[in-house]
Fold these 3 entries.
Entry 1:
Amino acid sequence: MWVTNLKVVTVALVVVLLYTAVAHIIPQLESAVPEQLTLSPDMSPRELADAGERIYNGVGNCASCHGLGTRAPYLLAGHDGAGPIGARCLVTFGPACKQYLYTSLVDPVDSVVPGFAPIMPDMRGQLQGENEIWALVAYLESVGGEITVTAADLTERASEAGAAVIPPTQGTTDARVLLQDQACLGCHPMDGQGPPLAPPFDGIGARLSAEEIRVAILDPSASVADGYEQYAGMMPETFGQQLTAAQLEALVRFLAERQ
Amino acid sequence: MPEWLPLVQAAAEGAGYGEFPGIGARNAVWIAAQVHLMFAAFVLGVPMFAVITELVGIVGRDPKYDRLSKEFTRLLVFAYSATALWGAVLVFFLTTLYPRFWVHLSGIFGVTMWLYVGLFFVESFTLYLYYYGWDRWNTGRAKWGHWGLGVLLNVWGTIVMFIANGWLTYMMSPPEGVTAATLPAEVGLWNALANATWMPINIHRLIANAVFGGAIVAAYAAYRFLAAKTDEERAHYDWMGYVGNFIAIATLIVLPFAGYWLGREIYEYNFQMGVTMMGGFMSWLWIVQAVLIGVLFLAANYYLWIGMQRIPGSERFAQYTKWMLLVLVIGWLVWATPHTLIVTREEVAAMGGSHHPFLDVLGVMSAKNTAVNLMILTTFLSFLLYRRANKRPVVDWARAGTVVQGAMFGTSALVVVGLGIAGYFVVDTVRIGFSVYQVIAVLACIIGVTAIDLALVRGAESRGAIQWGRMPERSQYALFVLAVTFTWLMGLMGFARSGIRQHWHVWGVMQDTSSFAATPALGYAANMITLCVLIFLGLVAFIFWLGGLAERAMGKPEPVASVGAAIPAGGP
């Protein structure tokens, strides 16, 4: 009987361990609590870089393009034979690296790397204040390079900037501002202008119902518009977390009315 | 107001959280809640078919069903204590580790908590009457009175479950208008109880409990089969294992439909919550679920195919086994294909895009729905062949009936595959509608084929009796795999349901501000699920052992005297 008991226990253990192993093999995604991020002039460069890392992986949503290598160059890993962003920036721009990174965040179209589409938005529209931009620069410098951002670069005092809350973002319900801030116009042409990387917003209300537009914003991978298959997967799936309900509805209403 | 409430309230005015040594407060509550839930599912699921098998025994005048029913119930007596113990542990942990949350919950649901305790008393005593009165009320009208106790047991259990479901679904989907500023006293009790996900969870759990109870009973039978000393014992437990497995799989087939309803209600309640569940950080959970359900289908079919070897006449169906296995394996692989892959730059370059050119096609819902519907059809076919194995129909339309049944299978499969392919060429709203037609096609086939089969084998000649007990031992391990997998799956789905609240105790109303507020990744959750499953299975093994001891102490009174013989002819 002990042999039978042993066999039964072995079968049970093998089965549960197999399932546990499968759950460990797949990507490990944790749902973090939105954090309070306070940036102040008395922070050390390292603390700034740490804050920048949280922005990079959080509200900045940087990895959704820079982590795939197809929409934008890799930043944390090597690109085109050069090292990660901190290293290659230092080699190319030397002491001006800090300024280059800052410019590429606030004026990305002028800084676009050859071979990639100009889809990146002005990050001032994504983040809250200049201090967060500088924190992001400090983090990017830290990846293989040297942090040269200091507290003196912070243009706003903590008391002025207040405690930045990540996410949700700003509360505007102006659809045009949202389309600009959320970088929608970086891919979707509107008023006949913009790169044709995604279906144009002109006439979208005639093609899709309000419900279909809502689904397309919140779950973009649910369907791909005809003719845009090669760009499938480009649109971030994080708008559900970034937009408030009022902002989402304002966008849906605005787009549905563009007959 | 209960006198203990001010004490808890005073505690709540502090940090709002207690500390648990070693594993932390969240894990302590996680284990207590999950193990309690597993036992609760068992003690709610088993009475369902205890009364059904007892009824079959009464109406069919077959004492072996009565014996089976009593054996189920004996397991219940021990399992009830374990359920109550873990329930008490859960309440004590919640009141001491999450006092702020407990004050909120009890402030709204206090009255139902008293009702819950009262019903638990009534339910326990009904069970004692049901079990200990078995031999006393075993004839005539008294037998029907006894069966009525079994029905009552189910009624009390269902109400108890519905009440508890009200508490947990309130945490997921509090009614509109309840905000962080709303005092518990301002929340209407019925409004909070009958929230958006209450009834879908009620129905889903009702079915899932039957599935789970069947699987655990089958595992018990498997163990007793392996330990059996005589052919008679082996035959009995072989049959018991078959019945448990049949109930588990038959009810499992309808469970996804309750799941769809629950999912739809979650989307209706809050679209972002739905996206978090299906397309957000939890999206990979469904791949793990697919792996588990694939194992369930394979193990259940394997058990049936092995079981056919003890049925004279089944040889003529053996040639189809390999094809059914092929469909199941391909369906499993498609179902478990992920859509979005985390890949390196080199892999992106090799694939020619961020999605794999071939796997991308299989990872979408059109392919997955098609796969799972074909797996359900295949499993139903296995059951049908098992049922028909030793029967030679005598009705003159037998051949035509079989042809019609085959045509039903073929048509259903064609509809499923056709709509699956068409799904690639339509917009998503139309495609979602296709999945409903696929389900209807499969259900229509199951109902139609079963109806024909019932008439077709009426009065059929036997090719030989099923040789119960003549099963190779390896078949019984398939039943263990089923039970362990169902238990793990329950833990996984518990994590999904609870995890979509993310960092909220009550979604949008009471935020979790403890150090355990972040919802962990699947690897961590899997470790916890495995721990809970092992605790549960260890305790269940102990209960099974107690069941054996009790039987020996009673000097093996079975087989039970013929039940049906004592019931007046014609029956009520």
Entry 2:
Amino acid sequence: MKEHRLRWHGKYTPWLFLIPTIVGLLVFKLIPIFTAFYLSFTRWNLIGTPEFVGLGNFKEALHSTHFMQTIYNTFGFSILYIIGSMVVGLFLAVLINKKMKGISFFRALIYLPVVTSSVAVGIVWNWILGPNVGLIAKLLLSIGINAPYWLGDTSLALKTVASVQVWKMSGYYMVLFLAGFQAIDYQVIEASVVDGANSFQRFFKVTFPMLGPTTFFVLSVSIIDSFKNFELIYAMTKGGPQNSTNTLVYDVYLNGFQFFRIGYASSLSMVLLLFVGIFTAINFYIKKKWAQPLY
Amino acid sequence: MIENYRKNNIIRLIIILMVSLIAVFPFFWMLQNSFNTEQNIFSKKILGLPELLFKKNMFENYIMVIKDYNFGRYTLNSLFVSGLAATGQIIVCSLAGFVFAKMNFKGSKILFFLLLLTLMVPVQVTIIPEYYIMMKLNWLDTFLPLIVPSFLSGALGTFMLKEYYDMIPNSLLDAGIIDGASAGRIYFNIFVPQSGAPIATLFIIAFMNNWNDLLRPMLYLSKEKLQTVTLALTQFQSQYSSRWNLLLTGSVLSILPLIALFIFAQKYIIEGSVNSGIKG
């Protein structure tokens, strides 16, 4: 089978077709990753030559409360985002997984925030959540409650930004779960109905376990996505107040392109890469052990 | 029993309506208040028609933002950059997807694996060296740094099209081989025409991603007249943070092309996102 297909193209044809892909992979992915790795051991301001400082940047990070706060925020945001987007996404999928007239219209409405820009989303939510003049503050005031400073309070700001991100992205997780529902064997569910299972039992004992591979796929997508919060944070809080919404991706930008501490920013980016790498490795391991990939 | 069933359906419909409202309301609120005056937007009233709606000078804010604040220009910049980047991506990704799906060669598996692995790497990891490359190439303050990287490193698109080409039966390939067509002809005359829908989907999704990108425009474009609409909106936000009516007008203008595209192609966008993990 394979033999005759080997001959239909020249030996170098695949490589010819892949030139742009390989150039892109090398120039914009692999070489930058290794360069950033090297730069993380240096002190540099983009001009002149990098000065080698060994583990200096990492030591500095570990001794700084600012960095610890950033790590705390990064994980805080990720956990809120992962749980929020999966729970809401699953809820929406269960809700909308029904043959009804016009259901695809509602699916599109719920998906709408996913395709709009984080910047526009950040601006409009900034306004809705704004103190005194914001819609929510006005609504709460009308029933006699003083609204908290959603984005100005250090203990609330991160939760608020993460919630807005969940609001923006849940439609995406909804359609991922919906696709998983298609793969479910409905005869099993019918059998459970015949056996007299109520809808709660049906969902938690039958449907949800069969969603295993999908749930796992959605989890790995949401973990990777949970780090992608730069735009929304830039549009909503710029890392403030008092560093309370500063995450790793934002801190790389701050150190690299606001303070021009290239070496330090590179070491932060390596910490980020390490986290992503650990999660990806765990994913790969579990995928092999447990779930059959759906996609 | 049947009555129960209908009752359930009505409850479900009500919840769906509420959820849809939550998803859409901020955009409605954005649109409504883009027709407001600066005085009126801070009024204590909760609801109430915006001042300018259905008046003679209804589009005052829009005219101001497009003319005086140059949003027309920024929109053209975004169209140009996103269009070109997306065009590049469909060419490069469909070529690569075709190779990975149908050609056997040494190193194919490793290369594909490497490509998938780089998908996980956040842009913040590579952006510093990338910036240095762009600086050395003298590409700062041109559109090239926004177009070329997205042109060349669309691993997601490659993945999506490979999956699609995998499903195209080998008999089609064999027919081409028997006719003595070259690999290039087989790709161009057989596989490209077969994959109109996924290529269009990839184009739209890549277009949207480039449209919404902020980090690269922020780093690479310092000249005002080169700004993309997403970047311009953040600049506008930091300069006129209290002129909410104009800021919201700018927001509406910046997402209007995306919403139009979404209405036009929502089925493809949603299905494409599911199949590949890419989203707009």
Entry 3:
Amino acid sequence: MNQITKQKAHIVFTLNGEPVEVAFAPHKTLLEVLREDMGLMGTKHGCELGECGTCAVLVDGRSILSCLMLGLDAEDRAVETIEGMATADGPHPLQETFADTGAAQCGYCTPGFLLVAKELLAHNANPSRDEIREALSGNLCRCTGYIKIYEAVELAAAKMRGEEMTLPKESVYGYK
Amino acid sequence: MKPFVYSRATEAAAAVRQVSNERSAKFIAGGTNLLDLMKSGVELPDRLVDIARLPLAEITALPQGGVRIGAMARNSTAANHPLVRERYPVLTQAFLAGATGQIRNMASVGGNLMQRTRCPYFYDPAMRCNKREPGSGCSAVEGFNRIHAVLGASEQCIAVHPSDMCVALAALDAVVRVQGPEGEREIPFDDFHRLPGDTPQQDTNLRHGELITAVDLPALPFAKRSHYLKVRDRASYEFALVSVAAVLDVSGGRVRDARVALGGVAHKPWRAREAEKILTGARANEETYRKAAEAALSGARAYKHNTFKIELAKRAIVRALSTAGGSGA
């Protein structure tokens, strides 16, 4: 680690697959470093106290709350934010199904949900409704009532397993 | 957040030295509680010594059938470790009842022991609180005290300990291993956390600069028959109103041995020894469990808004014991 003063820290870490270097005030949380020092606004400020889950990102593949982690703690680790979820091939299947089912309304909680759901599907390709509910229980959504979010995760899981799955028509966004 | 000097420790002895030498220095591991207290202005350390990367995360079997959990093991790792799952299901259940996946991925086992109360008056520097500012008074005694203690409280403080993990550790007679400036020592779990008395600012008997290195779980073969029951205001992501860790050794319809600990009712994880005395040797049935529950709460005292906790705790004890005891075979 480079010398850290009360005013400035300087670290290297992997962000969405690419090595990055950043300098920031050492008391900043990872959330603040991502938004203010790296210009990545996809990770949202919510409660700031670990109660809402909207600031969730993946660190070394595991979901954490970036509002409760010092930016310094990211040193030499791999951080994935919502900006890294889509690839050159297009959106991640979860992003597609969240759009298809209308699992996002105001959208403020969506980045956190998507990343936590991605972590779940990396460890469990075919989660039950209860497993999905448990995995996402740290993410609060005040718009959707959660059902569409659970359906979107189930649909994405099926897609990623290469299976066909159709939702009831009334669950699909835009159905009349 | 107030600026601080930060350093990352690469060996335990150096970390201990750095914190011991400075009154307002603190260890930081997962940060899930310390950082929010710093944001709220409750904790104002001048120096943070980051211990998260110390090589203290291993979970290993001990020679006599126990398990050692390194202090830096993540709550999610410890919860799902095969040794913990097989030997101490009550501990796995307690871990998984606490917080959420994201916080369990961050929080260390040592840090969980050091969680501070979630009393809202403690969290609000505008309110009087003897724990935050000794001698200023307790806003909870005359305030909204629905979530507060019914056992072991004092006029100075009626806060409760928030941890689920610690309730299971209390029932399992865990031992906390610590390293300090003068060397290592072991603290039996019951002596680790304190009742408030006249010094509610002190949550534990850990001395300044002492570092938790591991938690040892002694062998307890009957812990395979155990249950953690948590009652809370919503189904997930909430602290316990009341919780019960129940471990029962039952054979031939009788209770051979029992461990019962309660959460959400006191300033520390509350070992219900009166209940254990009644259980040991008695028939494994609901009548026994009810008597045990009455004994556990016999010294309870409620405040204006938390009378319900006494009855809730009794019923939770009966339910947890019935689940742990199974058919009583």
